[in-house]
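Aim 2 progress update. The chain analyzed this quarter is reproduced below.
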Amino acid sequence: MLEKIKEAVEYIKNQYEVKPKFGIILGTGLGSLVNEVEVEKTIEYKDIPHFPLSTVETHSGKLIFGKLSGKQVVVMKGRFHYYEGYDMDQVTFPVRVMKLLGIEKLFISNAAGGLNPEYQVSDLMILNDHINLLPEHPLRGENINELGDRFPDMSDAYDEHLIEKALSIATEKGIRVHQGVYAAVSGPALETKAEYKYLRIIGADAVGMSTIPENIVARHMGLPCFAISVITDLGVEGKIEKVVVANIIKAAMKAEPYMTAIFKELIAAN
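Predicted structure tokens:
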């Protein structure tokens, strides 16, 4: 695995030599943030050794290098999910690569179903913790000691200082934002009513099918993380409707400018 990571890193460095400071992973319907990036280099996933290919229609599959808020960034436009058939090594491979490219912080976005009764469609939720319900752990198997400890502590899964600064930015800009707990399930089927109820009972404010594997691997390598969910549908009793992908995309796109504003200001301040 380490050799594969290094081969991918070497290929990318041969294409683009500038060291990125921040890594950004864009979720479903949230790809327009790249329009704010001063793009200096784009590399297709298919050209990078050992990189998986995104099979989800709304995830384009490009690594984008450039500047955001005057800082060097690498943006994943398109991520990988366990439900696509990839194992966790493949799902998290790009995070390992970005770390070895030199990133110092990781920013993650996702589209999620809201479980907290106070949430509305197109609200933003900053993750302050998570519940991992995925059937495979990204650190299962032999530990790569060069990357991190065998038993990484997860009590600070999401960086408190970044959360506080993001909440301050949201207040200053009048952006409606919550903070809460994100649960990850394997998908790709959406949850039943009983499953929504169960997830709420165990403490989740939102549910999705990504983010947690990437976060765990980042923390394993000592990367501070900030993550934000766009609430695209509701799993709240009395508000549950049949989920249509087009509506999820529409809800994500409505909230995206606010998420982008927070990301831009947060990166500018770090």
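Residues 2-268 form a domain with the Rossmann fold fold (CATH 3.40.50.1580). The first helix runs from residue 2 to 15. These observations will guide the mutagenesis experiments scheduled for the next reporting period.
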